[in-house]
């Protein structure tokens, strides 16, 4: 991982809930500018990620101000914290690779979970993993942590990124 991106991951990890929420909102707006073709009403992973999942995680971390088209997907906003976490694992696994192009502002939101994904940091705070079976995020973190020789209970820690160096 590039050193600049590594530093940014660690900075985001250290933010309080409200500051992380603000940063998620800022970063997702940058990605939406880069990909205007993803509209809020489309039922594709990238659109749901950009317009509904990331803003909903920000809301649950304390954000209160949203644009008219954010968080309008009833399916997402009515999920329990655990359902949101499990569904986000599916969404993240199916995002277009173009969203994670490191040259793009905001692309850190599409980081692989093991390399530090700030949306996952928020989900870890909202709902710690309980059931590894239905939680793709926790399962992936545990699998990669094992390969990197890092203790992991399904929640990302800075040790994950240090062990990948």
Walkthrough of the structure:
The protein is mostly helical. It has one domain (3-129). The protein is 55% helix and 0% strand. The protein contains eight helices and no strands. The longest helix is centred in the first third of the chain and has 18 residues, at 17-34. The protein is globular. It starts with a helix and ends with a helix.
Q: Can you tell me the number of structural domains? A: 1
Mean pLDDT: 92
Number of helices: 8
How large is the radius of gyration? 15 Å
Query: How many β-strand stretches?
Result: 0
Helix content: 55-70%
Strand content: under 5%
- How is the main sheet built? none
**Uncertain segments of ≥5 residues (pLDDT<50)?**
none
Find the structural class using helix and strand composition: mainly alpha
Could you name the key traits of this structure?
165 residues, mainly alpha, single chain, globular
Question: In a few lines, what is going on in this structure?
Answer:
The protein is mostly helical. The protein is built from eight helices and no strands.
Walk me through the topology.
Layout: H1 3-13, H2 17-34, H3 45-61, H4 74-77, H5 81-93, H6 118-126, H7 136-148, H8 158-163
């Amino acid at each position: 991982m590039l050193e600049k991106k590594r530093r940014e991951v660690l900075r985001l990890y250290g933010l309080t809930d409200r500051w992380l929420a603000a940063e998620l909102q800022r970063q997702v707006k940058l990605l939406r500018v880069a990909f205007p073709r993803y509209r809020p009403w489309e039922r594709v992973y990238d659109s749901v990620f950009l317009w509904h999942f990331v803003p909903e995680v920000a809301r649950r971390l304390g954000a209160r101000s949203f644009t008219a088209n954010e968080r309008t997907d009833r399916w997402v906003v009515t999920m329990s914290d655990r359902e949101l976490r499990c569904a986000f694992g599916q969404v993240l696994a199916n995002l277009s690779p173009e969203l994670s192009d490191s040259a793009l502002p905001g692309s850190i939101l599409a980081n692989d979970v093991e390399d530090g994904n700030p949306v996952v940091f928020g989900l870890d705070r909202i709902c710690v993993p309980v059931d590894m079976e239905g939680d793709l995020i926790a399962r992936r973190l545990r699998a990669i942590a094992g390969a990197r020789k890092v203790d992991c209970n399904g929640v990302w820690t800075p040790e994950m990124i240090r062990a990948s160096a």
